[in-house]
Predict the 3D structure of the following.
Amino acid sequence: MPGKASASSDRESRYGFDEGGRSFAERLGQFVPQPLARRGLTIRLAVERTRYERGEPVDLTITIRNRLPVPVTVTTPQRRLWGWTVDGLLEGSDESRYLSDSPGSFAFRAKETKVIERTWSGRLKRVADRTTWELPDPGVHELGAFVATGDGRLHDSVEIELG
């Protein structure tokens, strides 16, 4: 599925975040207990408007912020650090995901805000004997964004109406 990611430098990690100075923040952030580090993060999902035509692309802006005055590193049970959903379907798809069981880590500098931009195509990917891209039913649908901590607490959602 096509998506767009904002690029701020040539030093970006595979997750689209600037790697400059990350190693120091990651090392220092490991001393902050996980419950405190997780409570220090906020996540916000925003869309340009609340009504779209069926099949119209929807731009998502996900903002994850460390409110703490110290660097933090949040661990995730798998390699996935964050994600977005459409009606509970990861990236608008019912396709099975195969992720390594090795944990991931998400480092933030003091008071750092990470902004992620993605585009949902406006269609749902259905994977069975053959893959299809279906228009969702008209009506209200929920878009969500999360930090993949495994407990579901770092999550935000918005409702949009498809006509």
